[in-house]
Amino acid sequence: MEKKLIIKKERCPQNHKCPAVNICPVGALSQEGMSAPTIDYNKCIRCGKCSNFCPMKALVLEE
Ligand code: SF4
């Protein structure tokens, strides 16, 4: 089955600018204010860069 990126909001402290937004090579992550980032599934290529980067493991590539 194809992997899917999900966000586990309960792991995200939602009190800072998400550094993973700028890591994404295709601009699939966006953030409003200090909220948890949102994923544009039309852009995401499931590369895993953001999930490897997020120190809180809030972005997860699931099977
Ligand atoms: S898995 Fe890759 S393409 Fe998808 S949001 Fe994360 S960094 Fe961007």
What would your notes on this structure say?
With 63 residues, the chain is mainly beta. The protein has one domain (4-62): 2-Layer Sandwich (Alpha-Beta Plaits), CATH 3.30.70. Helix content is 8%, strand content 19%. It is built from 1 helix and 4 strands. It has one helix at residues 49-53; strands at 4-7, 29-30, 38-39, 59-62. The strands form 2 sheets. It has a two-stranded antiparallel ribbon. A hairpin with a 7-residue loop joins strand 2 (29-30) and strand 3 (38-39). It is globular, with a radius of gyration of 11 Å. Bound molecules: iron/sulfur cluster (SF4). Iron/sulfur cluster binds next to helix 1. The site of iron/sulfur cluster (SF4) has 14 residues, from helix 1.
What is the percentage of strand-forming residues?
15-25%
The number of distinct structural domains comes to: 1
Q: Hetero groups bound?
A: iron/sulfur cluster
Strands of the largest sheet, in order across it? 1-4
- Broad structural category: mainly beta
Query: Quick one: how many beta strands?
Result: 4
What CATH first level would be assigned? Alpha Beta
Describe the global form: globular
Report the span from N to C terminus.
6 Å
Task: Give the helices and strands as they follow along the chain.
Answer: EEEHE
Task: Give the biggest beta sheet.
Answer: 2 strands, antiparallel
Predict the CATH topology. Answer: Alpha-Beta Plaits
Question: Any idea what the CATH architecture is?
Answer: 2-Layer Sandwich
What gyration radius follows from the Cα positions, in whole Å? 11 Å
Mean pLDDT: 95
**Alpha plus pi helix count:** 1
Q: How much helix is in the residues?
A: under 10%
